[in-house]
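Dear U.,

Please find below the material for section 3 of the report. The protein was modelled together with zinc ion; I have listed the sequence and SMILES used, followed by the predicted complex structure.
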Amino acid sequence: MKFVLSIAAALMVSACQAEAPRDIEVIKAPAGMSEVEFAKATLNRLQTVSFANNREYCGYILRAPDGTLAATPASKGKVSSCRGTEAPEEYLVVASYHTHGAFEYDTPAEFPSVGDVEADEAEGVDGYISTPGGRFW
Ligand SMILES: [Zn+2]
């Protein structure tokens, strides 16, 4: 009996893991907000934690089937890279967003990097970036 229960528990755990990507709670944009305004508000919210940890934070701006905008919750990346959480299937990915962390003398963080542009191009989406100096690209 104990053996059967542990198999059942193992199956439940693996089923939950398989479901995880679709269970992401997206952040909905306030009604009437444009894509650019929403991207700016999303990045603005992340600047403080991005500076404090000197890490990039990133995600995707999405369009819901009803036409409204949403965003994936931000993922914590590394000092100069970040991989966003996959969007739930029913949403269309329209753009990526990421912060550039804290100021460092050796890092040209005030501009989008070649890698930033190439990554968005490869995914076929627009990209929004916030910099330590307060620029919004
Ligand atoms: Zn970047």
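For the text of the report, you could mention the following: The first helix runs from residue 2 to 19.

Regards,
Y.
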